[in-house]
Amino acid sequence: MTGKRILFFSDTHFRTDTLHCFFPRARISGGVDWMERAFSELFSEIPAPDCILFGGDFASETSWIAPACDMMRRALPAHVPKYAVSGNWEHRRIWLDTSKRRSFFARAGFELLDNPCGVRCGGLVLHTCGDAKETDRILPPPFEKDGAFHCILTHSPDAVPLLDDAGLLQDARLILCGHTHGGQCRIPGFGALVTSSRFGKTFEYGLYRRTDSGTRLYVTSGIGGTWFHFRVFCPPEVILIDFS
Question: 3-state DSSP call for residue 86?
Fold first, then answer.
């Protein structure tokens, strides 16, 4: 994986309403135009990554699914492999079954990972773990001892204890997830006020490392917002991971 780059983002929550960000101050307008401009600026400054991953919660309003899919196909490099997992909003809020979710992610240029078997992308073997809040959650089978870089993409960090109980954290090198929004509102020196996680602040935001295996977990703050339309000390983010 040396020299490779992954782009990871999550929780876009496309909707009509404006998202206000404070400290640093920003204003993310509703719809999709703002994100198309942001991706255009990003890819004008960096080389295309080797893989693009999306962590779930695509849209908060069904009316924005099609425009957001078309925007993603225009804005993201066409030749780069792209993979996505479903979030709790795909399951509970917009009530789409797996086939419809697979269809709209394909329209956006992504392959929806709903099979626990690993997908190979160069030296990366990408696994999925279903959303821990849902009844159809799935765990990957034990990883092959093949020397590959095994990465788990899941929506919520609440899956981490399930993966641990299944003995999968010893062989996973990296886990990527979102869902918490980093709290969306953070207090300096304290962090998130609310995380929507059953484990509270345990996996609220940022990079974590398991000491016995070296497994790394990154919980992104995501991009959009849910019930309240502002962020405080918690700017939206897209993650670039460079392997050195």
Answer: coil
